[in-house]
Design brief:
- The protein is built from 19 helices and 18 strands.
- By secondary structure, the protein is of the alpha/beta class.
- It has two domains: 263 residues, 3-Layer(aba) Sandwich (Rossmann fold), CATH 3.40.50.2000; 208 residues, Rossmann fold, CATH 3.40.50.
- The strands form three sheets. Strands 1, 2, 3, 4, 5, 6, 7, 8, 11 and 12 form a ten-stranded mixed sheet that branches. Strands 15-14-13-16-17-18 form a six-stranded parallel sheet, with helices on both faces. Strands 9-10 form a two-stranded antiparallel sheet.
- Strand 16, helix 15 and strand 17 form a beta-alpha-beta unit.
């Protein structure tokens, strides 16, 4: 089967968050299972540094986007068996010749022009695209844009994965008009549910694709409720028969970039994982000047966004430090107040040599900390899937999590039909529930109960294999 992803991100060359890891991890597993996979993505100026040599294709083309003349050139490379098509858009607006992937006032225009170019390229390629897999709001409107203009290629079957419902691509009519979306039917599909004369790119995709997925079964249930549906719960309820929650996997290659991992660790030998952990903890103790007598380490590797409950992370840190433990944060983003909150914590406890706060993106240190730590705190208010708990399992680091989204589907506090104890969980997003889970975890550290959770974590299947098979079932069901 041939699958084409149209996406705004793809690791390792264009990454903001977990979406990028999903694209590369799922694609690699589909290739392993014998399928053909292409990825269509904007040609960001920083992308080629992380890719094999690219080849410029011979067939440039152009179109108008509103008043702008857009010249399109396509480059191709093969990465891990996946065809990567980089779509370069040359126009006065320099849509993708910028420093970041997102965060511009014209993001709606940028990704609509990319979608238009991607669909035009697919049509010109004279290649069959039976399945087109879309991701989040930047590419959700592809079926509508496809239907607006007659094409020589037959209409693909479309899948749309919702990675994070918080971002929906709300826009005015003007960018739609520039993209060539004029019909009453198309505008009705894109019409926002609540804001007059506004349009919602994600909602348009949810209404028009053949199947919707999201990144965990629990998140699928959560976004079908008024409380967590971000205003779109009704569409998920209406399309329940074409809506599936599938857990993300994790490609170990993506977490073995900065540490030399012995084959025995890769084969999940528990003693080897613990030996690696001991060595990495000794290394970081020396390099960071950490108190070697501290009984345990807790880490947080996270964006400092409200979603991640930074205030609860801070309280967990205080608890650990008060009990002579180590707390280390690698935190990206976050407003001034949140960043200062953690810097103040570091200043208060600096004399103990048991706290470090690193602000900014630092994947090398993050990987080393996952390998060295004893606990990872993840108290998110909501978490569509989550990757940090999966990385924690790989390195026998015990996650302490709130029961939400993919955390609820992967971390278990007691034996059940779905899994064996591999972490500590709490339900309510408040200090009392958090402290209860953290206290239990710290009190059990070093006991047989803790050791059992470590062993179960190492045995947890974090691969893409089963999840990819579930996607293939959906692809086959919707083939035209």
């Amino acid at each position: 089967m041939h699958i084409a992803h149209i996406t705004s991100e793809c690791a390792p060359f264009a990454k903001v968050g977990g979406l990028a890891d999903v694209i590369i991890g799922l694609s690699k597993e589909l290739v392993r299972q014998g399928h053909s996979v292409d990825v269509l993505i904007p040609h960001y100026p920083f992308a080629e540094h992380h890719l094999p040599p690219v080849t410029l294709l011979d067939d440039p083309f152009f179109f108008n986007f509103g008043d702008e003349h857009v010249n399109v050139k396509i480059s191709k490379t093969i990465y891990e068996g996946i065809g990567i098509y980089l779509i370069d858009l040359d126009s006065p607006s320099h849509f993708f010749h910028r420093d970041r992937i997102y965060g511009y006032e014209d993001d709606d225009r940028r990704f609509l022009v990319f979608l238009k170019a991607a669909i035009e390229f697919m049509d010109r390629l004279k290649k069959s695209f039976p399945i087109v897999h879309l991701h989040d709001w930047p590419t959700a409107a592809a079926p509508i844009l496809f239907d607006e203009v007659k094409r020589t290629m037959s209409r693909p079957s479309f899948v749309l994965t919702v990675h994070n419902l918080s971002y929906q691509g709300v826009t005015s009519y003007r960018p739609l008009e520039e993209a060539g979306i004029f019909s009453q039917k198309a505008c009705k599909l894109l019409e926002d549910l609540y804001i007059p004369y506004r349009f919602n790119l994600l909602l348009g995709g949810l209404r028009s694709v053949d199947h919707i997925t999201t990144v965990s079964p629990t998140y699928a249930q959560e976004i079908s409720t008024v409380e967590l549906g971000k205003g779109l719960h009704e569409i998920f309820i209406k399309r329940a028969k074409q809506f599936t929650g599938i857990l993300n996997g994790l490609d170990p290659v993506e977490i073995e970039r900065y540490i030399e991992i012995p084959n025995s660790v890769k084969s999940r030998d528990f003693d080897s994982v613990i030996h690696l952990k001991k060595g990495m903890k000794e290394k970081l103790t020396r390099e960071l000047g950490i108190d070697a007598k501290a009984p345990y380490w807790m880490i947080s590797v996270t964006r400092l966004a409200d979603q991640k409950a930074p205030h609860l992370i801070l309280e967990a840190a205080k608890d650990v430090l008060a009990r002579q433990g180590v707390f280390i944060l690698v935190g990206s983003d976050g407003d001034h107040h949140i960043r200062k909150m953690f810097l103040d914590l570091q200043d208060t406890w600096a004399h103990t040599n048991r706290v470090h706060v690193f602000l900014g993106y630092n994947p090398k240190l993050a990987e080393q900390l996952f390998a060295a730590a004893d606990f990872c705190i993840i108290p998110s208010y909501f978490e569509p899937c989550g990757l940090t708990q999966l990385i924690s399992f790989y390195f026998a680091t015990i996650p302490i999590v709130r029961k939400t989204g993919g955390l609820n589907d992967t971390v278990f506090d007691e034996e059940s039909k779905t899994g064996f104890p591999n972490g500590y969980t709490f339900q309510d997003p408040d200090l009392k529930a958090l402290n209860g889970a953290v206290d239990r975890a710290l009190n059990e550290f070093g006991t047989n109960k803790y050791l059992m959770r470590q062993k179960n974590g190492v045995k947890t299947d974090i691969s893409w294999k089963n999840s990819a098979l579930k996607y293939v079932v959906i692809y086959k069901e919707i083939l035209r």
